[in-house]
Specification:
The structure is a homodimer. By secondary structure, chain A is mostly helical. In chain A, helix 5 crosses helix 9 and helix 7 runs antiparallel to helix 8. The N and C termini of chain A lie far apart (46 Å). The first copy, chain A, has two domains: 64 residues, Arc Repressor Mutant, subunit A, CATH 1.10.10.10; 154 residues, Four Helix Bundle (Hemerythrin (Met), subunit A) (Up-down Bundle). Chain A has a two-stranded antiparallel ribbon with strand order 1-2. Chain A is elongated. At the A-B interface, helix 3, helix 4 and helix 5 of A face helix 3, helix 4 and helix 5 of B. The structure holds a DNA duplex.
Chain lengths: 230, 230
DNA sequence: TTGCAAATTTTGGTCATACCAAAAATACTT
DNA sequence: AAGTATTTTTGGTATGACCAAAATTTGCAA
């Protein structure tokens, strides 16, 4: 109707994905099979595959059969990823994004301080302990650092938050990855994590937020030290 | 090098867009021109256009010349839109999304209470006044209601927040649009807005957050009343 | 000259076919 | 049974062609 023959194919396939006919991890039918099934040309079949890929419903690596990828909120943020990548090239882009991260994590630690359950506390303590144990291993510290923050995103039990966390770490990875890793900095960051943890244990949302903001503001200073004004 | 000829074309064109050679609103060269310029087949030219469109750099309506669209954060959320749309069909999807909205707006009103400037206060008062003046006009109340919340997203001066607000209203519109509009409810919502405003004026973040959470929790109850458990 | 409608050109959407190279599948050898 | 060579499948790209919708030009009448 509306000019795009590929759209109907996209609709049909995404329907199969959501209804489970095509499960996570399955291979998409070959393009030549699609053209037979839907009575379309290969051009349209390829177009449909492209659209599905841009919507995150399938993962299409060059020269490989596209793989069905169950669409979670992660997929949504993945779809936004390429655009955000462009925006981060512009002055202020990284700062704007990091700023939202600060506000969100501030809200998350408040939430944690107010309503973290026993299990959440255990998870936080575990993550913190592992973080402390890897201060001298820069690569692993990087991982356990992220893991500690990840626990914060898990606490509300809302799958959107972990997806956001993954998006942040992915989008900001280019900057983060280039930052110099020093044991001294690790020690400072671990101390910050500990302060956040303490405030949560004391059920003091204001202190938790303050500690978190201080932590991320410090991290941002490091970014600026490395990259200058971006 | 690695398989996708279209990628180099995409890179070249996106470079032109970012460098301003192709400005916002310009028309993308015709496919047949692209193939000549880059020495590629029409297949690849079309592929490149598709990719650029999926990245939000150009807006391609069927049967129309693609238009350059300098991507903002709104474009990123637009790209995520189709996936989120699907997720909202699943049980709990709407709730999960609305939950994040509550947390974000709670953080925003805290921010507003702590650091809203004179201009922000004026904007809030204006929005609130217009909201109050339209209690008996359901459609306009709906608009001024959104406008009041929009001001909250504007206060931090970070372009990401207005984009998020637009995404929320777009994504949740299907539910919101079907809700019954009653002058009584308008009155309640206006009272909530006033309470939030008062707390901000008193520079009391806790009260502002409480008022906001109460307001949105109430709104959610209305949603459940209309749709049942979703 | 100007306004508008008809004719023409441009351009996006689709199809069919062909070739190549990388993957995947299969056959074969050790 | 394991590893290697061979065949088949499949995605990436190129050509060329046709149609219908847009955009442009042309031409005529007011």
């Amino acid at each position: 109707m509306t000019g795009r023959a590929a759209d109907s194919v996209v609709k049909a396939i995404s329907g199969r994905i959501h209804s489970g006919v095509l499960a996570d991890g399955d291979l998409l039918p070959a393009e030549r099979d699609l053209m037979e099934e839907f009575g379309i040309s290969r051009t349209v079949a390829r177009e449909a595959v492209r659209i599905l890929a841009s919507q995150g419903l399938i993962a299409a690596k060059p020269r490989h059969r596209p793989v069905i990828r169950k669409a979670g909120f992660e997929a949504a943020f993945d779809a936004a990823g390429s655009i955000v990548g462009n925006l981060l090239q512009h002055p202020g882009g990284v700062h704007n994004l990091f700023d939202t991260r600060i506000m969100l994590e501030a809200a998350l630690v408040r939430e944690a301080a107010l309503s973290a359950g026993k299990k959440d506390i255990v998870n936080l303590k575990t993550a913190l302990a592992e973080n402390g144990a890897t201060i001298d291993d820069n690569d692993r510290f990087y991982q356990t650092d992220q893991q500690f923050h990840a626990v914060l995103y898990d606490i509300p039990g809302n799958p959107v938050y972990p997806a956001i966390h993954r998006a942040y770490t992915t989008w900001l990875a280019p900057q983060w990855g280039q930052m110099p890793r020093l044991a001294d900095r690790n020690r400072i960051n671990f101390a910050s994590h500990t302060a956040i943890m303490d405030a949560i244990l004391l059920r003091d949302p204001d202190a938790a937020e303050a500690a978190l903001r201080s932590h991320l503001a410090d991290a941002w200073d490091q970014v600026r030290l490395t990259f200058g004004d971006i």
